[in-house]
Amino acid sequence: MKWTRLFARLLLGGLFLVLSFDKIQHPRLFAEALVGYDLFPMLTVPSLALFVPWVEFLGGLFLVLGLLSRGSALLLLGLSTAFGLISLITLLRGLETECGCFTGAEWATVSWSHFLVNILMAAIAASLFRWGVGPVSLDLFLAGDTSRE
Amino acid sequence: MEEAPTVSFQEATKSALLILILSGLFAVSANLLRSKPMDAFSPLPELKTNDIGLLEARNLLGNPDVVFLDARSEEAYRSAHVPGAINTPHDSLHKLYPQLEERLRAKIVVAYCSSPRCLKGDVVRAYLAKKGHQDVRVIRPGFSAWLNSRLPMESGL
Hints:
Number of helices of chain B: 6
Oligomer: heterodimer
Structural class of chain B: alpha/beta
Distance between the termini of chain B: 64 Å
Number of strands of chain A: 0
Strand content of chain A: under 5%
Largest sheet of chain A: none
Number of helices of chain A: 6
Helix content of chain A: over 70%
Number of strands of chain B: 5
């Protein structure tokens, strides 16, 4: 089971890392996608477009490395849940808007599969938070160092 | 193989907050390092030629020489649209055009989709340009921004 958790951790962390790259490079395009959701006050959109991708990047990186792992799992749980809720609200409102998942994909509109993927990611993050992130982690290395002192 | 000792929920929350703070610092630093830093509080994108913003579109509402075309799907149109707009989904405009041709002649046409990155309004503009319509504009921020800005709207067919 611990190897399954390691795999899940690398998968989830890696996914968030990859998803963040495009948005970090093109915050204006991500901001445009956020406008399409019609959920955020216009004034907050540019700040969100700058901030959220870095949360994805660092949360994903920390999880992959197994550093502050329970905290990063908690953070990614929050992100996945929020993205899932946003997808659900958008779908129920009948809004056709691009998901902003990959800002280069102009026709990637929000769909039920986006909602389900986010729920799946939230479930993985929740289980990592609850049961641990598996072996081979920086947390383990640092805990070992501390105990030797 | 061993695993790291589990930490309390409180510790995990503190770690999550730390990651959030670091993210903010990275976001600010990375933005400042850009050749054109993004203004974190300014409204959105620069408009292209023949694109119009929300206020200009709002001022054209009710003008008898202006026709609004909603390039989204029928479902999206039914849920909400610009008052008086005609639903012309971008992929069926060629079928609807014969019925609309007279109505669009010598008018300013304003097309829109849901968001700035949705190009359906541009598809409508390109099609009408080929048909000889000279003045076709696109509401670049899109209908979502229109709604967000509490501009007039109606629903139904």
